[in-house]
Amino acid sequence: MPALLIALVMLLADFLFQRPPGLWALLVLLATEWLKNRARTVRENTFVAEWLTAAGALLCITLVYRLTLGILIVAPGMFSLALMQYGMTVLAYPLVAAASYVVFGVRRTTPGEFDHTGRTL
């Protein structure tokens, strides 16, 4: 996905959930770009390693988000609510991956595979 589209969707989510505009969008954008750079390494590992990598990135941006709000003296909300949101997101990851595979036919690429333009993936 293009970085601009990710930033725009997350900025709209900031407005919708009445979060400080741009902070979560920036953190998600940074995490997705970091994950994109690690895509080849993650692709060569198992699904569990992919799941743990995504969970770790989400944990990092969640902690940075709460820390930043604390430094700026903005009420970040209840910690238990953030913990539940994180936990449910991590638990939903395999379900979304399975649904993407079954319903949409999304599959993991193998090392050395080419896309429709002839570039390596």
UniProtKB/TrEMBL annotation:
The chain crosses the membrane at residues 49-74, 86-104. It comes from the Bacteria. Keywords: Membrane, Transmembrane, Transmembrane helix. The keyword Transmembrane applies. This is Rod shape-determining protein MreD. It comes from Ponticoccus litoralis. The lineage of its organism: Bacteria, Pseudomonadati, Pseudomonadota, Alphaproteobacteria, Rhodobacterales.
